[in-house]
Amino acid sequence: MLWFEITAHVPPALVDAVAAVMRDVAPGGVSVEEPxxxxxxxxxxxVRPNEPVLLRVYLPASELGAVLTEDLRHAMEAFPEVxxxxxxxxxxxxxxxxxxxxxxxxxxxxILIVPSWIDHEARPDQLxxxxxxxxxxxxxxxxxxxxxxxxxxxxxxxxxxVLDVGTGSGVLAIGAILLGAGHVDAIDIDPxxxxxxxxxxETNAVLDRVSIRAGxxxxxxxxxxxxxxxxxxxxxxxxxxxxFPHVVAAGGWLILSGILDVDEAxxxxxxxxxxxxxxxxxxxRDWVSIVLSAEGVPSSRFPVARGSAL
Length: 310
Known about the structure:
Strand content: 25-35%
CATH topology of the largest domain: Rossmann fold
CATH superfamily of the largest domain: Vaccinia Virus protein VP39
Radius of gyration: 25 Å
Order of helices and strands: EHEEEEHEHEEEHEHEHEEHEHEE
CATH class of the largest domain: Alpha Beta
Largest sheet: 7 strands, mixed
């Protein structure tokens, strides 16, 4: 079906009046989009004052749409300083069409990420993750996911028990199992992400070795792991700085990502203050992964995890 997308850049003082006019003729309502500056991951945005606001409506390309468009033109004569711009737009099945932006991810390591809707023949030496990210983070296209997969390749040892914090699509949990981990406990604060991860683990035939739950990681988690990986954000990692010593086994590894390069130093300092020893930092574009060892973390009464469910 063909629609017309009609937009207008409106001075802030006229936004309410013009939006009311456009709302009267638009069956789907009006979109009000203020100019903003993005402040960074999980930090939100800041509205830029005194700049034009974008108003957007959609009208059907039909006899009714023609009448509505003419009504809008007449009503907008009261605002000669506002220009309407119309362009045709074909309706799409967005639940499917977004997939064209996601292809095979080969970052040069052993792991190859192949979207579930693509046929692709991997090399014999590659480990393939079949992935449908759904509404969860972790397609392999983001720098932080690739950094984490590279870190897993370097630090997963046969049979190691892994904790995946902020599992998202489950891509890192699946990757750890394919690389030889014995069991992965995966956790995410988003219940939708937990379900997506569970479905992807089932697709990749690893659900019997991955336990997934929605929730928040705390110091009372009760288990330690040979490897803990957290691809979340700077603030989320900092918020867990005093929790990680309770879940990483003595001599184990802590891999952190979701961190901008400008925040690397303070994340590293927070972790070393909690007993971890900095091992390496790797960078891709503006993002980093930080690998730390638990050599300086004191022993705990908590047992090392051995394939038990969360």
